[in-house]
Amino acid sequence: KNQVEQSPQSLIILEGKNCTLQCNYTVSPFSNLRWYKQDTGRGPVSLTIMTFSENTKSNRRYTATLDADTKQSSLHITASQLSDSASYICVVSLTSGTYKYIFGTGTRLKVLA
Amino acid sequence: NAGVTQTPKFQVLKTGQSMTLQCAQDMNHNSMYWYRQDPGMGLRLIYYSASEGTTDKGEVPNGYNVSRLNKREFSLRLESAAPSQTSVYFCASSADRDRVLWEQFFGPGTRLTVL
User: Fold this and answer.
1) Closest Cα to residue A70, out of A23, A9, A1?
2) Does any CB of chain A come closer than 8 Å to the CB of residue B2?
3) Which of the four pLDDT bands, split at 50, 70 and 90, describes residue B100?
4) pLDDT at A96
5) pLDDT in tens, B54-66
6) Does any CB of chain A come closer than 8 Å to the CB of residue B98?
7) Which residues lie below 8 Å from residue A53, measured CB to CB, with a gap of 6+?
8) 3-class secondary structure for chain B?
9) Closest-CA residue in chain A for B92?
10) Which tens digits make up the pLDDT trace of A26-73?
11) How many A-B residue pairs are in contact by the CB < 8 A criterion?
């Protein structure tokens, strides 16, 4: 069964600190992996996307890594800011099949001053 | 550009009532989607429309109907609302459903409560 699991479920950190969120997937056939940021009361917004051949992708203070062999991805947030408080959702896309996008349940991040 | 817009933002229904959630996009996208988001679960696909004039069931279509009115608009209808349909509903669009490298853009969501 195609699944995307994220950890931790929730995380609290102090402003300025770094953190890493994890995503493990059992999805086949794999096309790409995307990280979304979802602010409270809003729709998800794409942060990064990586294909099978990419190991890392950065977007400002967000750096995503992908290990296609172990089927793991991480999202590293550097020098966190209060505005980073949100849910971060890992989404894996398939190359074929009816349901092309498999969503993780998300990690809820809270950044405290 | 407004992107993807949804109305209403909030709605409370009684069991058995009907309502239609509206969605529109101004990005000239071919594909549109309806998802629901429940606590502790990932977004689940209700229905999608790969192009104007076509609609297909997703993972959780029971209790819902959709209409792709034109290229811009994709509505979701609850004919007889049930408490199990209490959720946050998101509409999304993408240029092409089969080219998954192309980003899905999401609307702000509709928070629906069924009493």
Assistant:
1) A23
2) no
3) low
4) 65
5) 999 998 999 999 9
6) yes
7) none
8) CCCEEEECCEEEECCCCCEEEEEEECCCCCEEEEEEECCCCCCEEEEEECCCCCCEECCCCCCEEEEECCCCEEEEEECCCCHHHCEEEEEEEECCCCCCCCCCEECCCEEEEEC
9) A43
10) 988 888 899 999 999 999 999 999 988 889 999 999 999 999 899 999
11) 52
Strand partners, A92: A33, A102
- For residue A96, the chain B residues in CB contact (below 8 A) are none
Nearest of A72, A61, A63 to residue A4 by alpha carbon: A72
Tokens of B68: 């792709």
Sequence-separated (6 or more) residues with CB below 8 Å from residue A5: A23, A24, A25, A104, A105
Q: What is the pLDDT of residue B102?
A: 73
Reported as type and span, the H/E element at residue A35 is strand A30-38
**B41 has a chain A CB within 8 A of its CB:** yes
Q: How many residues comprise chain B?
A: 115
Measured between CA atoms, the residue of chain B closest to residue A97 is B98
Measured CA to CA, the distance from residue B42 to residue B83 in angstroms comes to: 19
Helices (H), A1-113: none
B28 in Cβ contact with B87 (< 8 Å): no
